Fold:
Amino acid sequence: MDKLLITGGGELQGNVRVSGAKNAALPILAATLLADGPSQISNVPHLHDVTTMIALLGSLGAGVTVDESMTIEIDASELTSQRAPYELVKTMRASFLVLGPLLARFGAAEVSLPGGCAIGARPVDQHLKGFAAMGAQIDVKDGYVFARSDGRLKGARVVMDMVTVTGTENVLMAAVLAEGRSTIENAAREPEVTDLCEYLIAMGARIEGVGSDTLIIDGVERLTGHPYTVMPDRVECGTYLVAAAITGGRVKCTHARPNTMSAVLDKLRAAGAEIVEADDSISLDMYGARPKAVDIRTAPYPGFPTDMQAQFVALNSIAEGASRVTETIFENRFMHVQELNRLGADIQIDGNTAVIHGVDRLAAAPVMATDLRASFSLVLAALVAEGKTLIDRIYHIDRGYECIEEKLAGIGGEVQRVSGR
Ligand code: UD1
Structure:
């Protein structure tokens, strides 16, 4: 199992090219199942989760070709299977996103219940509620969801009990081919949902209210494959900005989309960073200063993203002052805290809040990555810790961060991948 060996110290400085967004690429790749004819999807990040989704589409019988620039052409005109097996779904919760498209286009789907990060119960009841409202018959048996519909799905009003990103996406993808009008209320407003809407519209879908919490969908009989470029990854971008901030450094993230990142940029400013936003880049400069502690409360978009929570816990751990970071989306998303404390941080958990007293210095220790975003918080802490930190189980990081060693090396981080047993 690979590990990362990180030598702490030194301000990070330089440019980072932001990759395409994993959380937009995955639903968009699933949505290619809705179309007749090929779609060419570009700016797709080269990540394990993307490889898993491509393998899943291939196993369903879709034609998949990948060129050298990671533009992926997918043709789902003729599928041979409507079954997404446990082996492919267990490693990645987003595999569940094929259920809506398969059901809408072929009237049947068998999809294993999902796995993914161990950050909470993460049920799929809202997805299933939406499909049932559209007339699908849903049975859950032996760890699989069996969904069927006699003829086309019927447009329906779906009110989500809570804001769910993949739940909104799955129901949306089913609704675009349903007969008549659907509305999704309390829909997720995350930019990745908007990116999916734009791809669906490019293929011929009729969706109103894009970017709002009410999506109105008039079902069409067919969609036609279309080229699409995936949006930049706001979480990856935010993470590299925190890397600069935690080391007192200066980084410019290029190929970014600043207008999707206001909550994170506001908190970085509050932590003492100077931020300059351009059309497609963000520059951050700490002028060598130690960050100031900032309180955080995660919330659905446009609130502060839960996927940036762990990184800000790391930032606060060496900041000047005390802070409270409250997690409202997932019930078990503080697994990084114990590991950060091993590096010398002073963090207590009080219910769903991490109470952090900033310390002057962190010191290297062996630590273990536990989930995707939590893993990067350990990388961030290691970049400022004195000595060499060995991070185990970094397969979690590889699920979501493209070329991490190259990108960190490009801004002066000393990071080495060590192959272990
Ligand atoms: C997506 C993101 C993930 C991010 C999360 C929240 C992808 C591939 N992943 O995950 O990176 O951390 O949004 O922004 O886009 N819930 C239910 N029932 C459901 C669905 C969700 O109770 O049917 C609950 C979940 O347990 C959780 C909350 O709703 O507490 C939000 O989850 P959700 O938005 O669905 O997260 P994901 O879409 O899985």
The chain has 14 helices and 26 strands. The longest helix spans residues 234-246. The longest strand covers residues 3-7. The pocket of uridine-diphosphate-N-acetylglucosamine is lined by residues 23, 26, 93-94, 120-127, 162, 164-167, 192, 306-307, 329-330 (CB under 6 Å).
